[in-house]
Amino acid sequence: EPRAPPENIAIIGAGIGGTSAAYYLRQKFGNDVKIDVFEKERGGGRLATVTMQGQEYESGGSVIHPLNLHMKRFVKDLGLSAVQSPSGLVGVYNGETLVYEENSWFIINMIKLIWHYGFQSLRMHMWVEDILDKFMRIYRYQSHDYAFSSVEKLLHSLGGDDYLGLFNRSLLETLQKAGFSEKFLDEIITPVMRINYGQTMNINGFVGAVSMSCTDPGLWAVKGGNKLVCSRLLQASKSNLISGSVMSIEEKTRTKQTGNPTKVYEAVYQTGSETHSDFYDIVLVATPLNRKMSNITFLNFDPPIEEFHQYYEPLVTTLIKGQLNSTVFTSRALDEFDLGTILTTDNPDLFINSIGFVSSVEENNNPQPKADRAHVWKIFSAGPLTKEQILKLFVSYDYAVKRSWLAYPHYTPPEKCPSIILHDRLYYLNGMEVAASAMEMSAVAGYNAALLAYHRWNGHTHMIDQEELYEKLKTEL
Ligand SMILES: Cc1cc2nc3c(=O)[nH]c(=O)nc-3n(C[C@H](O)[C@H](O)[C@H](O)COP(=O)(O)OP(=O)(O)OC[C@H]3O[C@@H](n4cnc5c(N)ncnc54)[C@H](O)[C@@H]3O)c2cc1C
Ligand SMILES: CC(C)=CCC/C(C)=C/CC/C(C)=C/CSC[C@H](N)C(=O)O
């Protein structure tokens, strides 16, 4: 006889991980289960906008890859629409000069790339494509309801030992072994890692490939703001959003209406100055577990649940409406300066990771140059910019807003991903970020945790950690 569904489920965190988990849990367990989603700050988490002169701009997660199929599906199913992300010309600045500059003519670009770096850029493209192709297998596994109990097992199922090896070795080591030159790594690959993850090539090879995939054409965003996906997922999952900070989780035994003593989790949470508690059959933690970001204590577990110390990289996003001082980067006249994004090499004297012009969340594709030449530029830097630093970059500016983040894990391979199963019915999604942090990765983690919770509740062990899945599913429609 099938087991009755759980009575209630708690999800901690209303970012894309938590809300996608809510959406899939509702699909799996049906309408009778009560789902509470706790959020201590803003729904959307690291998907957020800032407002400048009445227009909203993405300040956190902004671009989505054309092959991010969960995000694509959400937008379609939730009645949202997509806008193309700006795709201006890119230059690379080393603190003294532009060491590489894209050209608007495809053919000239190709010739320039081959002239500077031989065929390494083509080889790099093929390397990333192969990793992405294998990554796409996850969609097939998930559409057949298969789940994984650890991130390592999930990565292994995508491409075996070599794929898992990517995660265990640094990008630098992987690409050096593959014969890429120092010049190419310093001038092209490192700058891409700096804009995307604020780090060097010491990050793991898998996140390195995810980061490189951001150089593919066709990046997009959600019209009105990526965070809309989270609020729509919550709505569609008919979950209750509780504005409160979960402080602790403890396992307790309760006697339910059936008269049987049952193990449940007590979540103690704070809303304003009040402390409350509720009991749940299943709990999903959808936020990075560390003191600075979530501060959740697991009380009286035997054996104890490990303490998490994953260090997240501080990053500041600054949006500035102003006229760029192009002479910082090149001696060419301003009206000949046509770069839309400037990446930087790993030079300790540089105070920015990147600067690029951006569109508002309502605009499609490239923003039009304004008559006064004032664009909105987005700058990523490790720390807040001083007024002097801003004045070095801009001839003039009328508006600046900043947002500080603990943005992504600090990647130091080889490292171990935290377990997805923290306890019997207690799951953790954000260990996935140790492999790579991106919206789609959190959506994959949300779906996986929902499937895992469902199968473990119902004793469907054959749907968890199946080996050779790719071969097994080859003949399935
Ligand atoms: C500046 C920046 C740029 C980025 N750019 C991109 C990009 O272009 N493309 C891309 O794909 N990804 C990008 N990312 C990464 C992407 O935004 C994240 O990987 C993703 O949004 C993480 O989602 P999440 O739901 O797992 O976590 P989060 O969004 O962090 O959600 C966790 C939520 O839990 C809440 N919470 C924490 N503790 C508690 C508690 N105790 N009780 C209740 N609630 C709690 C938090 O307030 C938060 O809202 C970027 C990130 C940053 C910071
Ligand atoms: C998960 C897979 C296969 C692909 C995701 C690719 C992707 C969109 C990664 C995002 C990487 C990231 C954290 C980018 C941050 S900066 C983004 C952008 N350049 C900006 O200027 O905001």
UniProtKB/TrEMBL annotation:
Keyword Metal-binding annotated: no
Cross-referenced InterPro entries: FAD/NAD-bd_sf, Prenylcys_lyase, Prenylcysteine_Oxase1
Entry EC no(s): 1.8.3.5
GO cellular component: lysosome
Domain of life: Eukaryota
UniProt KW keywords: FAD, Flavoprotein, Glycoprotein, Lysosome, Oxidoreductase, Signal
Reaction equation(s) it catalyzes: S-(2E,6E)-farnesyl-L-cysteine + O2 + H2O = (2E,6E)-farnesal + L-cysteine + H2O2; [(2E,6E,10E)-geranylgeranyl]-L-cysteine + O2 + H2O = (2E,6E,10E)-geranylgeranial + L-cysteine + H2O2; an S-polyprenyl-L-cysteine + O2 + H2O = a polyprenal + L-cysteine + H2O2
GO biological process: prenylated protein catabolic process; prenylcysteine catabolic process
SUPFAM superfamilies per record: FAD/NAD(P)-binding domain
Main location class: other
GO function terms (MF aspect): prenylcysteine oxidase activity
Role according to the record: Prenylcysteine oxidase that cleaves the thioether bond of prenyl-L-cysteines, such as farnesylcysteine and geranylgeranylcysteine. Only active against free prenylcysteines and not prenylcysteine residues within prenylated proteins or peptides. Involved in the final step in the degradation of prenylated proteins, by degrading prenylcysteines after the protein has been degraded.
Protein name: Prenylcysteine oxidase 1
Species of origin: Balaenoptera musculus
